[in-house]
Amino acid sequence: MNLRTLLLGVSSAALLCGFANAETLTIATVNNGDMIRMQGLTDDFAAKNPDIQLEWVTLEENVLRERVTTDIATKGGQYDIVTIGNYEVPIWAKQGWLVALDGLGADYDVDDLLPAIRGGLSVDGKLYAAPFYGESAMIMYRKDLFEKAGLTMPDSPTWEFIGEAARKITDRSADISGMCLRGKAGWGENMAFLTALNNSFGGRWFDENWQPQFDQPEWKTSLQFYVDLMKDAGPQGASSNGFNENLTLFQQGKCGMWIDATVAASFVSNPKDSTVADKVGYAIFPDTGNGNHGHWLWSWNLAVPASSTKAEAAQKFIAWATSKGYTELVASKEGWANVPPGTRTSLYKNADYEKAAPFAAPTLAAMDAADITKPSVKPVPYTGGQFVAIPEFQGLGTTVGQLFSAVLAGQSSVDDALAQAQTAAVREMTRAGYIK
């Protein structure tokens, strides 16, 4: 055997050994635009970590939640990294289901995370998930349609104004709905919006003694308002529309207004994808004159299940995906307007970002306005904003979401849905021991 053959044999063996020793991380994530973009940029991570391979499981929001919850609760070990919200993080951390993220590296700069976001992901001073993007909710509207209708968006719009404006800019002949809102059933789909809506109407899920409040006038008023508005100014099939479906409608110019997550702003204003990119204005979530603007505060985060045997490698990926360096990578490839928003203080002090993203200031203002410790005008025994931060909310919220989605589909009435929601909530809260 000559020297060249020997060296080639050694190199091939080393290469094969390297592949054999490579760790494969299975990552469960949601099919939102920012996550899809992240998957397209992972060559950068692979170049820096050749000993780690990535396997993606990308799912629709409701399906992701169901599968991840089942796997983590049963310690199935199917995923090494999961995409979860700030609803799950503190609950699951206290259950011992998540790994504390103490291996993100000295240069990660955890102190740069926005305080409200970091606080929602920490238990006893330890970070249990790293935020990929954060959001509140706001109005995105077509400035050209408002101008055509002789309307001016107020600095602090009320629901009364929004309802009138939506009906006025609806043009069925041009396939333009005045308002797009979530209708797809799910605790994080339609109930995220409807809980925020009810908060802004002065309502609440439970009173101070955990008694369900679906039999109170605020829920009747807010749900009736929503159903009537969607009937008069919403798109066909609204009961099947979630975040992604409404995003597509708005980008296609088929929505005059859309009230949803602030993270959508970069997509509706991107001329590559949006036909109305240069016509979008932004305003704070409406209220009824009581000063409560929905109090929506959410983040999609990356966490490591306690059942994973690859926590060290998983934290390397999480550190890469949620770092300031990743933000700069996205900016270099896609432009500053498309970087993941709502997680780091430094981003909102970045002149390049402020210049490129007209939605930066409204997004930060909406997030700053959110106070999840006081989600309702009335006193409540829970925190959470557009969700209720108790373990039972995931199941109960989905049940109620199905009842309310059926109303939008014309299969039930507001009164019947509220009565069934009240019964379901009383039963669940009694079973769980909240009500004696």
TrEMBL record:
Residues 1-22 form the signal peptide. GO terms for cellular component: periplasmic space. It is found in: Periplasm. Its main location: periplasm. Keywords: Periplasm, Signal. It comes from the Bacteria. InterPro entries: Bact_solute-bd_prot1, SBP. Pfam families: SBP_bac_1 (PF01547). The keyword Transferase does not apply. CDD domains: PBP2_TMBP_like. Belongs to the bacterial solute-binding protein 1 family. This is Sugar ABC transporter substrate-binding protein.
